[in-house]
Amino acid sequence: MVSFQHLAYPTRMGPESPRPLTATVTVVDGVISLLDGELPDSDLVAVGARWNGWFEEHESSRLSSLAVDELTLVRSLGGKLLAVRKVSVTASAEKYAIGNAWALLDRARDGDKLFDVSLDLVCIAGLDGFFSRVSPSFEETLGWTDDELYSRPFVDFVHPEDVDATLDALDGLADGESVIGFENRYQTKDGGWRWLGWTARYHATTDKIYALARDITAERKLRIALAEARDEAQMANQAKSQFLASMSHELRTPLNAIIGYSEMLTEDAEAAGDETLVRDLSQILHAGSQLLTLINGVLDLSKVEAGRIELFYEMCDLKTVLTEAAQTVGPQAAQQNNRLVMEFEDVVAETDQMKLTQVVLNLLSNAAKFTKDGEIRISLKRLGEMAEIRVEDTGAGMSEEELQEVFIPFQQGRASFVSRSHGGTGLGLSIAAKFIELLDGTMDVTSEDGQGTQFRLTLPLMRPARGRARAVAGGTLVVVGSKH
Amino acid sequence: MTRLLVVEDNEMNRDMLSRRLERNGFDVSIAVNGVEALESAQANLPDLILMDLSLPEMDGWEATRQLKEDPITRPIPVIALTAHAMAGEKERALAAGCNDYDTKPVDLPRLLAKVRRQLGE
Fold it and tell me: What is the predicted ipTM?
């Protein structure tokens, strides 16, 4: 702390006669305040008034003098010099004192500038609950003039619901805690409310609170709108999944009857030896089971999207799982004169056998559908901590555009006529991809028009640690692109 | 002849399932809701019950609970049949006391295998 003895004989440039002043002021962090004596109140000191006089600096035991011949007071309130705009010093003053005085006054001036230019609300307040200085941005933001803000305790301006929290924050400040990110509502002069976000500290040496506030009304509105939009989107998505699940259920019940009666009639027709009837009925059964596959697919997909797929991990001999899947598809592959080649290493992995079987069956039956007089190869090997499964065919393949859409529900490669002739739901690959993702594996595909398709899966050998995020929307699915 | 009680509220499914079971050599009686199922089970003591779970009056879960609380009907195996293939359905059925669970549409060979397993055949 440095103190200046003000022994000035101020010469006021105004209608009133000059009068001598004697005052001791302290300058701390650029804020000048009165310790002893008197300074004119703001009503006496017009902005731009000019003062001549002496400053004497007390530092330790030394007394030195500092001549100030011109001092412009910007404002003064309650005996406190709140801002000093301009000081010029006579040549007779000692140099160090001049330097100190300039530095201190410069800092005071810099502080003023910050107060003046700040778009944020800058203020100084006492623990008595009153502002002692506010920046012009207060009036710009809230509409209250400085004098209105000084005339009442500042909690008077705070929204009734925020008063308790504000007083708690003040208690914290008095105990030496910093306030960071505290939010409350201040009333505006026109009766509205603005949300302010505060940063503040209390300095015991000056017994003052120094605080910054930002108008976060718009930001808060945006924050709330975003949260609402997110909640709405989640609810809509859930409603969609719920709708799909109920719809699938409602569709399965009548289908139950169609398939059941068709099977009964087939039994009767077979017993009667009526070949034509057996063939016609098998068409109904075929269509029925295709519809059932589609409904089950929609149900699977809605379960995945609603996060309601349960995984049942167990130690699986992958060679056995794949062999059984290959045997199931064998007859279908043979129908179009395809060779089915198996190349299996012994690999044991902790995974969900049912889901993996569903995925592999889907890939194999796709291969069988789109390959004629060719080869379907399924292979299994261990790659470090992963199992690698490949399903490759020499069939129709896919163009680059088809590859990009291969995992999207209801997008079937070869669009209309091929998919019609090959049946299928357009859901199988989407579900397969999501299952593999849930099992913490990866699935990628390469293909080229007319040159066959190669699917490659990897699966961890051990069940991943619990609590690991299973973000279905995430991106472990990779479409590698066409081979060239 | 093995006596089965089929509990199913949908007329078509009930007719179809009971006729197909009869063709496979079972003596089938029917109930259309949980209350009828309880009455029939207590009066006739069937060898096994195929229980739809979503039923009017009293649902299949409650009917199964009551069957399993009564010392007389408790030994009768109950296989739940439901079109709800959602996760947790199997657990809910077993928690109510069902001995096994199958989904609709009925895959007859699969269902018959489950029936025979419950009957210890």
Answer: 0.73
Shortest Cα–Cα distance, B71 to chain A (Å): 34
The pairing of strands A208-215 and A179-187 is: unpaired
Q: Rounded CA gap, A416 and A98, in Å?
A: 91
- Residue A29, Cβ neighbours under 10 Å: how many? 13
- Cβ of residue B92 closer than 8 Å to a chain A Cβ: no
Cα dihedral angle (A285, A288, A290, A292), rounded to 10 degrees? -130
Sheet holding B78-82, edge to edge: B27-31, B3-7, B48-52, B78-82, B100-103
Q: Which residues from chain A sit within 8 angstroms of residue B109, using beta carbons?
A: none
Record: contact A249-B84, CB cut-off 8 A = yes
A260 part of contact set with chain B, CB < 8 Å: yes
Digit-by-digit pLDDT tens for chain A (484 residues) are 333 333 333 333 333 333 334 444 444 444 444 444 444 443 333 333 334 343 444 443 333 333 344 444 444 444 445 444 334 333 333 344 444 555 566 666 777 788 888 889 999 999 888 999 999 999 999 999 999 999 999 999 999 999 999 999 999 998 988 999 999 999 999 999 999 999 999 988 888 999 999 999 999 999 999 999 999 988 888 788 778 777 877 787 788 888 888 988 998 999 999 999 999 998 898 888 888 878 888 777 777 777 777 788 888 899 999 998 888 888 888 888 989 999 999 999 999 888 898 899 989 988 988 888 999 999 999 998 899 999 999 988 887 777 777 777 665 554 433 443 455 556 788 888 888 988 999 998 888 888 888 999 999 998 876 544 443 333 333 444 443 3
- Report if pTM > 0.90: no
Asked if A419 and A412 touch (Cβ cutoff 8 Å), the reply is: yes
Instruction: Say if the Cβ atoms of B105 and A259 lie within 8 Å.
Output: yes
Min Cα distance B45 → chain A (Å) is: 27
